[in-house]
TrEMBL record:
GO terms for biological process: proteolysis. Transmembrane segments: none annotated. SUPFAM superfamilies: Zn-dependent exopeptidases. SMART domains: Zn_pept. This is Zinc carboxypeptidase. Belongs to the peptidase M14 family. Residues 1-23 form the signal peptide. The keyword Cytoplasm does not apply. Pfam families: Peptidase_M14 (PF00246). It comes from Bhargavaea cecembensis DSE10. It comes from the Bacteria. Its EC number is 3.4.17.-. Its cofactor is Zn(2+).
Length: 346
């Protein structure tokens, strides 16, 4: 346990220097070999996402689309809002702080479409939903001031964790120096009375729990400065997600092993705003220079579905109040995921 924390800190330090983890011998990993190709062309580009959102806004009377700022390279950053009654509880879903973790955004886009259909009827009467998809569009589009030549995916573009300046946005939640982080804090966190937040990410492809590879992992805030009630809310949010995902045939979740730094949104946002946060790490990244982090596209279907299931289950549990009575004791027995080979994300 202690050892893991230390390695996390080391990973964080590397990340800040914009020198991603050194790849082991290339060709050494199990990676996507046998799990077919990784082609980034099937993912929404930033502009495809923008037109998708504009089209949904035109179709859905309850949906509002807002620009909350611009990325380093000048791309508009979007906030999707369903806010019928400010008195209702509010949940925020955040995707792609790390540009190479795109299936979370794909799932969020699909969920936004669902919100405009009959099967979600009435849900938004009782819960406010905020979605910030693709907070790091420059990284997602590979439009960055450093080389991605050794990244492994094929397709129209490479995707990277960092923003255009090589900064990890999920280490910028205390000083808030980057324009993407500033937009999130100034135009979303400070403006709305948010109760819950799920920060959606992807981790490496080779974590396991009880000997079986996980479809993802979850974690509540682990800083000692978090208010106990906020922490309890996070654990309840995690219980909703765990029950919805782990009970499916394809879902298998472990407990993420994460650090206490408040530069990370899971910790920092819980402390600064009193919001119950949950980190959700899906399996496998869309692109990376380190092969074992990347997952072939045959897994896309269930990972997108995992995001949709997560968003759907949590908004319903908040809307009908059932989240309040969730039993959080599963956290005491949920095993921390183990890594078949060193990998960290968050
Ligand atoms: Zn991430």
């Amino acid at each position: 346990m202690k050892k893991t924390m230390i390695s996390l800190v080391a990973a964080g330090a590397l990340v800040l220097s914009a020198a991603p983890l050194q790849a082991d011998a290339v060709g050494n990993g199990p990676n996507y070999g046998g799990n077919e190709t990784i082609n980034t062309s099937i993912l929404h580009t930033y502009s495809e996402m923008a037109s998708y959102l504009q089209k949904q806004e035109a179709k859905q009377k309850d949906m509002e689309l807002e620009v909350i700022g611009q990325s380093v390279k000048g791309r508009d950053l979007y906030l999707v809002k369903y806010m019928k009654n400010p008195e209702n509880p509010t949940i925020l879903f955040l995707t792609q702080q790390h540009g190479n973790e795109q299936l979370t955004t794909e799932g969020a886009l699909e969920f936004i479409k669902h919100l405009g259909t009959g099967k979600m009827k009435g849900v938004t009467d009782n819960v406010n939903i905020l979605i910030v998809p693709m907070l790091n569009p420059d990284g997602a589009m590979g439009d960055v001031d450093f080389s991605l030549d050794d990244y492994v995916a094929s397709g129209d573009r490479h995707l990277t964790r960092y923003n255009a300046l090589g900064v990890d946005l999920n280490r910028d939640h205390v000083t808030k120096i980057q324009p993407e982080t500033q937009a999130l804090h100034n135009q979303v966190m400070q403006k709305y009375d948010i109760d819950y937040m799920i920060d959606l990410h992807h981790q490496g492809a080779r974590s396991e729990r009880d000997g079986e590879l996980v479809s993802g992992s979850i974690l509540y805030p682990t800083t000692p400065n978090v208010d106990p009630d906020v922490l309890e809310g996070s654990k309840k949010l995690g219980a909703v997600v765990f029950d919805a995902v782990d009970s499916t045939g394809w879902g298998h979740l472990g407990k993420y092993v994460g650090g206490t730094a408040e530069t990370i949104s899971r910790n920092g946002i819980a402390v600064e705003y009193g919001i119950s946060t949950l980190l959700f790490e899906m399996r496998g990244m869309s692109d990376h220079e380190y092969e074992p982090y990347v997952l072939g596209q045959k897994s896309n279907g269930y990972l997108i579905k995992q995001t949709i299931t997560t968003l759907d289950a949590t908004v319903r549990a908040i809307a009908d109040g059932s989240i309040e009575s969730k039993d959080t004791s599963f956290w005491d027995t949920l095993a921390e995921q183990r890594t078949r080979q060193s990998e960290e994300d968050e």
